[in-house]
Protein 1
Amino acid sequence: MADHSDMRLVICVIDEGSFSAAARKLGQTPAAVGKRVRALEQRLGIDLIVRSTRKMALTEAGQRYVEDAREIVAQIDALEEDLRDDASTLRGTVRLTAPTAYGQRFVLPAVTDFMSRHPTLEVQLSFTDKVIDLVGDGVDLAIRTGVAADSSLIGRRIGPYRRQICASPDYLGRHEAPMSPAELTGHRCLKLPRETVLSDWLLNDGVRQGTRLGAGLTCNSLDALAFACVNGQGIASIPDFIATQPLNEGQLVPLLADHTKSEPDEDIMLLRPANTVTPHRVHALGDFLFSRLRQ
């Protein structure tokens, strides 16, 4: 019968680099560690580790064993931790990532509300507009926009969003409003880094030929671009979760409506890794975020 303590032992030997180093970490003698590894190899009928006076290395079978053992041990740890949790007391850490502008507006208030209900839970929240490897970086949950199909992730659709092409009344008082996407090249355009072609603004000029945008401020913050737009610095493409309020208050004016798609641009998704046992605390926070953000 398989014993996951043997799996942990072999993983420790490989991670520490030697039997003696693993023995020190585990509080055992090198002889005892070596005896357990040999007993495991005899039970399996294969060699896992090739030993020499100078170094050791995994056999091909040993590499497969360690790879699978890491996943099994991680699942056992998650399952045992999940069983220790209950609906009223959530403990441990949840690692969550979200886009900066959307995350600061909507995810952070939801997370702090959830944590006030579960004071023994720790949430590590990071804001980034980069696509990161959830499994490789040890992230439990992610909020993302415009997600491509990925079999390693399980996703739930929070809702759609669209981007608004707009400018301030002050800017339009000094510059004639563009009537077609091609006219944007003659305007001050406020852009995200590398967002220099028309298709990035999701406009349609009939053939989507990628008319270039005019020179203007380039910044990696949507909030900063929205601020500059409201203050008359140019034309910007701003997500509706940022643009709605200044549009309603008359601080911004929508442009090029005839060249904007009628359907939403992209979806906002809640994602988690598919190939791991998900602890109850992760499920609980995910369900809370999904319900809150859909509102």
Protein 2
Amino acid sequence: MIELYVTVLIIYAFGKLRLASQQNLCDQFSTRQVEELLAFLLLKPKIRHPREKLIAMLWPELDVPHARHRFSIALSRLRRAVRSLGVKFEDYFQTTNDWVAFMPKQPYQFDRDLFVQSFRQALQTDDLIQKEAVLGEALAIFRNHLMEGIYADWCLAEREYLERLRLRALGLAMHCCMQRQAYEDAIEFGYDILHHDPLREEVHCALMHCFHAQQRADLLLRQYKKCRELLQAELRQPPSPGTTALFQKLMADLAKVRLDETTDFKTRQKLILAMNTFLQAADQLQKLLVYGK
């Protein structure tokens, strides 16, 4: 489990960027440039960023003298925002005539860093129960998109990177749930993944496994159809032969279970006929997918 510092400065980056300390909160910044300057420094800590580079990044359309003046104002407003929390600006930020940096001298808590640390800890954990617990902590931290409202390229790249980590965390959590046969939880994680990345064929397959374990042929069939429809609509291609073969096997297994449980002669005859028809059609589909004939 990640241990939290007894913090002085708390940084919330998931959702709108916010700063906090004890009972004080700063969730509004005087200008977009002040917020972007803070965000950039936080995401690239312990680096001495040249003032000229920051100025060009924030005011590319202005001539140098005007941009420098705007930067001095923005830096002053950032200093004021931090101090409004009862925190010493110099404990976290260093500035000279040449550069500016987020150089923390005092403890702080940054939810972005806590999420990444929890995710990496989960990767290094072999025990499934502990792994699932750590993944739960990580996913609880990731409440919204990173620094909503900031659309600079450097922020979009970090946002995309963290979104990929979140999807990996969801996949690992889904695997943990399936290992302990907590299929409802696994299904919830699977749906969350597909909401953000609907073409993940392996997730569709994992969901089919869950529905097979629950003996829900209706949901298994619906998931396969959904996978097929999405791949056809987006990629103009059918599911992979492996996905189709898995679907056939799982449906056949459920049909056999149903047949074993059925004693009524007519029902058994209908079920056998339906199984044969399904397997013949599935076999033909497989041949078309693999051999094209």
Protein 3
Amino acid sequence: MGRWSLTASIVNAVVGSAIFGMPAAVAALTGAWSPAAVVLAGLGILPIVLCFAEVGSRFDAAGGPYLYARTAFGDATGFAVGWVMLWTRLLSGAAVLNVLVTYLAQLLPWVGRPTGRAATMVVAVTLATAVNVRGVRQGAWAVDLLTVAKLLPLVLLVALGAVAFDGDALRAQPVAAPNWTEAVLLLVFAYGGFESAVSAAGEARRPREDTAFALIAALLLIVAVYGGVQLAVVGLVPAAARAEAPVAAALGATLGPAGLVLGSLAAVVSTAGWLTGFTLLVPRVPFAMAGRGELPRAFGRVHPRFHTPVVSIVACAALVLALGLWGTFTATATLSAIARLLVYAVTCAALVPLRRRGPRAGWTLPAGPVVAALGVGFSVWLLSTRSLAQGWLVGAMVVAGALLRLAMRRGGRRSTPD
């Protein structure tokens, strides 16, 4: 992949289902000031993205945060990060599948029934898996195409919002007591996903040079799109907090019924693009871990014709399908966001030791240790706001991974001849 394909992969990994539900939820929390909340959250995530830009520019192999943590802090920490990151994206995939069903059911009511829900999820996951088993080039082309396709309706909404902006609609966004903390937490989830995109650095033509460029360019584009969409929604839809499908409602306010259909189709295309990117990028984590002997060797198996990690791709697809059928959007998205913060904190912290003993950086972050401290502090602050029950669930996830690693190490010792 070239730098623009890598940038498209990052945009696709971030701009998924959240953009279609986020405007109403953020409007409910901060009202007419919600566009400012979008920018504020983008500024909060900026130090983390900048740390990823430098750290990622030091590596040209697959693995992303797993590889960074392993190099900086040792095998145990690397495994823990890889394990948590894998489940972060699997849970995100499950949430996206549920959004796909919800929006598609507005166009095809049968999809909303139990049988239709299951069939839709199976077809969506199967198609995305088949594209990426055939090769990185086909997967990258599909990601590029779907990224452009899903951004076009959002860009159209921003343009329509600029032309038809209604000050009365903006004033009709009542919020008794703005809750900025919860708004930022929600938006950080919406901004997440870039950490998995860098896991495919080994597939880029010039990973050391292109990773930093792709991360920073993608964040700037995403902030612009999110901010523009939020401004358009609160400027076109009075009491946007009550809109079930805010993007479709905003398009409907300017284009009529055709806008409602366009908004629903945009959500379907967005989730399809996200799933295609998911099956391109996420399986590289278990593939890299298998190469280190931390997961069964089967996960490192490569397709004899297409040279892709076929077992990892199929296994990740099967797990995300199972989680999607089992869970709801809210439950899976919440757990994904909490786990993601752990990955962010460790990657930011890795910047300092990697400067001392890591590979050469393709791009160096000015005032790197200070920015790293900001990224760690931001992540820890967000984690401190979570409930004890949520913390226990993520803790159980980490313990399960530690037990798996222990079993793999014991199995490796038994298979080693004396």
Protein 4
Amino acid sequence: MSTELIKLKNMKKILLSAGIITFMAGSVALGGTGAFFSDTESSSDNTFTAGAIDLKIDNTSYYNGVATSTTSWESKDLTIEKFFNFFDLKPGDYGEDTISLHVDTNDAYLCANVTLTSNDDNTQTEPEATDDPNGVATGELAQNVNFIWWADDGDNVLEVDENPISQGPIGNLVLNQPVKFALADSVTNIWTGSGGPLSGNSTEYIGKAWCFGILTLGPVVVQDNLGTSGPNQRGAGFTCGGSSLNNSTQTDSLTADVSFEAVQARHNPDFLCNEVHCPIVTTNILIPGAGFEGEGAVVVSPQQWDIFPSVAGGWTVEWRDSGPTTFGDNQIRPIIANLEFHNGVLGLASEGKQYVELDTDWYGPTNGGTGEPASVKIYQDIVTVPGQDYEIHYAFAPRPNTAASENNLEFRWGGTVIDTTGPTVGPSGPIQWTQKVFTVAATTTTTRIEFTDLGTSNSEGTFLDDVRVYTESCI
């Protein structure tokens, strides 16, 4: 075969191979559009649902120590429910309620509002007219129904570790003017002692008691795991006395509104029930000398004690009771009561140099007589703001080397007994002071702070010092 022929055959093979290669390349190009990587993710039914604050309230009520269904109810939204609804009051009647506050779902602040809506005289009976010279112009019932509120643990009893948050006659409220109390806001929480809301899905309790007459506190010993263990089992933690009332309240009536408000806590860190947005300063509002360091009552006698007639050290002084007014060899009690100041006689003062003895003296250190009935009460009437809290500080001590019956101190705020310290045995050594602190609320524009010696009236016993009343206000 010739060389040219061989070359021709080889050329055809080469061309044929090239054609096959070209075809395959075309096949690759035609199928390339279905081979890219891919992925798909979907989010469906996107939703916002608003949260909720739901406050529900129930109440367990006692009237004169007996459970009553007319003012008790289970947890619900309030519509027609009443915390008190009594129509035949007698002096000495009393009631106690434990209010349960249930916050569902979310954390919330809580505020309470109380409004005196009426205080009416209605008609006058013949005996009422004798004791009520104002006729039917104004009612007297509200001034004689005393209330107390406290942070309770749910057992319907005022116990020794449960301090009052507000107390006094409901008649101290200004008619139709709501008074708002902080239960839990950014600076106050009556259950924890510091600011902060209630947790969602939680329950807290408020104790409320009233007395038609003089309400005297007598908190009972704490007992856990007793259920409700209400006033019909352990006593209410207070007593009510109506013997001081006369006929002026006959046929009178009062009405009041009580409401509670829950407010969202999330994204609301500075909420206050009573809106005060300013720098705060704490001030002692008692007059200078109320801590017994002077103001016309400075002890300079060599006996290191002396007596000063009312007004002494800024305090009005009165004999505790009406008698007896004579003692021993023709000693006659001074008409104007004295307050006895000490400067290091039996030990150091709690604050400063001086303190006072409330079982005082008739004639002072230059008179040799002793043992006369000389117990006194002292008080100041101070300007207050209804609904505002006040922090009361004072120091109590029993007189050294005396029996418990000699040393008993009563503290009142606005006419209501807040605490009784004693009877307490006096120590064998120097004076031993106990510091007392209470948070109370004002219900009127003037409030009386008062201390009384309840011990045996014989010129020995019950020391008091370092009285302070603090309030917070804007700078």
